[in-house]
Amino acid sequence: MTAVLGVDAGGTSTRAVLVDTDGRCLGYGRAGAGNPISAGMEHAASEILSAVTAAIRIAGLAATDVGPGILAMAGSGVNPDAGWIRSALVGAGLSGDVELRSDLLATFFSGTFEPDGYALVAGTGAAGIRVRNGVVDLAADGLGWLIGDVGSGYWIGARVVRDAVAALDGRAAPTALTGLLLDALGIEVGGKHADGRPAALLAVTDAVYRLRPVELSRFAPLAFAAHGDDAATRILAEAADALARLFGAVAMPGLVAPLVLGGSILAQDSVVATAVMTAADASGLVSQIRQVDDGVVGAAVLALRSAGVPVDAAVFERITGSLAGLR
Amino acid sequence: MTAVLGVDAGGTSTRAVLVDTDGRCLGYGRAGAGNPISAGMEHAASEILSAVTAAIRIAGLAATDVGPGILAMAGSGVNPDAGWIRSALVGAGLSGDVELRSDLLATFFSGTFEPDGYALVAGTGAAGIRVRNGVVDLAADGLGWLIGDVGSGYWIGARVVRDAVAALDGRAAPTALTGLLLDALGIEVGGKHADGRPAALLAVTDAVYRLRPVELSRFAPLAFAAHGDDAATRILAEAADALARLFGAVAMPGLVAPLVLGGSILAQDSVVATAVMTAADASGLVSQIRQVDDGVVGAAVLALRSAGVPVDAAVFERITGSLAGLR
C-alpha cells in the first residue's frame, strides 16, 4: 500500500485525495455530484470513480497501489451499506476496501486533528455535531428542507423568495429582494394579470414551482447582496440566531474544544458567520474556530486513522499543506 | 329551465346545488375531491358529476330540467377552459352549459349578495380578494405552500412540526406540540438512534417526509389544541398577523363593505379568526363580517346572476334558508 484514499462526496461536487502514511497528498481529483441519495447510485458511483481515477493519475500511481479508503457523505448514517461504491471501485482495479463516514465528521477533521470538538455546516442544508473520541457523539438538525435545516441556504433562499413576493403582492413593505429576485430569474417588471396583480408575480411563482424545493437555496446569496435592506437584514439575523441555537444544541458544558465551520453560509466570512462565531466564543466552550471549504482533508484524516496511522499536529499540517499545492 | 346549477369543487370535497329563479334550493349533493389540478381531470369530473346527479335525484328533476351552471374552483383563473367538465355533464344528459369561476368569489357570495366587498379564505392555503361589481378586482396571496399561503393550515401545520422537532432536537425549549405531534403520528417516546438523538425524532422525520408537503396542514389543529403553550401561541399570533396583512393588501380606502371569512382556519371562531376580525374591524373598511363553511351558496348566486336573475336580500335569504333544509 502506497497511499490511503479519502473521498468527500457532496450533492454538487466530489473530491478525492490520495495520502501516504506520513500525511503527504500524492494526488487529488474532482468530479460532479457524488451523493447516491440525491444523484442516484449509478451516477454517484461514476462521479466518485472519476474523482478517484483522476487522483490516481495525478499521483502517478497504479490502482493497486491504493490502500483502504473512506467515503464521507451525507446520509451515511441512515444507509451505511457501501456495496454500491465498493463494486464500482473493484471494477476499476482498486481493492474496494472503503467505508462510509458522516460528511459532518469529515468537515470536523478538515479543521482539526483533535478527537473532540464541534462542527457546524450550513450549505444547502444545516446540521451540527459534537465529536468525542473521533466519532459523532451527538448530531442536531440536518432534518431537511421541509421541517429543519434552519439557517441553511435553503432556509435563507426560501425566505428571500417569500419576502420578495409578499412585497410584490402588497402584503409587505417594498424590499430590495424583489428586484434582485426578478433579475436573478430574468423576469421584467410591468403588466397586470387577471386578478389585478403584477404579471411579474405570476412569472416568479411559475418559475419557482418549476424548481425542486432545495433549489431555492440558489437565492440565498441575494440576502447577502441586499446590503442594508430591512427584510434581508432580518432574514440573515434569524439565520444566525438559528445557527447559534444549533451550536447550543451540540455544545457540552466542560468540553472546551475546536469548532469547525463549513458550508457556503459559514465557510466564508459574512454577517451570519461572524454572528455565529461571536455567539460560539461567548459560550466559553470553544478553544479555536476554523472555517473549511469542504471535507476532503477530513476524509484523508479518517482514512489514515482507519488504517491505524495516528494523525497528530505534524501529520495534519502535512496533509493540509501538501493538498494546497495540488488544488 | 327549472333550475340553475351551482357547484363548489374543492380539493377535499365537492358540493352541488340546484336553485330555481326565486332562489329556492331544489336539490343538494356532495362528493369527493373535485379540483382537476390536485385530483386530476378525470377523477374531478367524475366526483363533480356524482354531486350533480345526487342533487338532481334529490330535486326529483330530469337532467334536461337543469339550466346553465357555475363551477367554482381554485385555479379557474389560470385554466379557464371548462371543456373537461362540459363533456362530462353532456355525457350525463345535461346541457353542459357551465362556466368556471374563482372559488374565492364563491366564498364571498356565500356570505353576502352585495356586489362589493372582501373575502379571506384560510384552509390548506390562504388567499384574499377584493370584489367590485361582482367580479374579482384584486387578489392577494394564494401563491401556494412553497412561497405563500401565509397563515394557512399548511403554514401553521408546518410550523407545528418544525417547533415540535426543534424541541426534540435540543434546539428549542420544550413545547406541548411535541407530545401532540407524536400522538398524532402514533410514535412512542424512548430509545436513542445512532447520532445520540431520540429515536422518536427519526420516526417523525420519516413519517413527515412520506407526506406531500400540503398534507402538513393536518397538524394545524395541534396548535389550537395546545392551549397556553408558548410555541403554539406564537404560531397562531403570527398566522393572525399574516392574515390581517392579507386583508390589508386587498382593503381599499373608501370601500366600506362586507368581509366574508372562509376555510377551516377562519370559518369557525378561534383565536386566529377573532384576531383577524378585530384587525379588520379596526380598519373601518368593514360593514359586516360573515363566516361561511364553503362556497356552494355563492356558486348558486353566481349561477343565478349569470342566468340574468338579480340576487337581492330576499333571494339571498331564500337560497341560504332553503339550502339549510337540504343539508
Brief rundown of the structure:
Chains A, B: Pfam families: BcrAD_BadFG. The structure is a homodimer of 327-residue chains. Chain A has 327 residues and is of the alpha/beta class.
Specify the CATH homologous superfamily of the largest domain in chain A.
Answer: ATPase, nucleotide binding domain
Task: Compute the number of strand runs of chain A.
Answer: 10
Biggest interface, which chains? A-B, 41 and 41 residues
The number of domains of chain A: 2
Helix content of chain A: 40-55%
Order of helices and strands of chain A: EEEHHEHEHEEEHHHHHEHEHH
Number of helices of chain A: 12
Any idea of the CATH topology of the largest domain in chain A?
Nucleotidyltransferase, domain 5
Major sheet of chain A:
5 strands, mixed
> From the structure provided, what is the oligomeric state, counting identical versus distinct chains?
homodimer
Distance between the termini of chain A: 23 Å
| Helix-strand category of chain A | alpha/beta
Question: What key phrases describe this protein's structure?
Answer:
homodimer; alpha/beta; Nucleotidyltransferase, domain 5; 2 domains; five-stranded mixed beta sheet; 10 strands
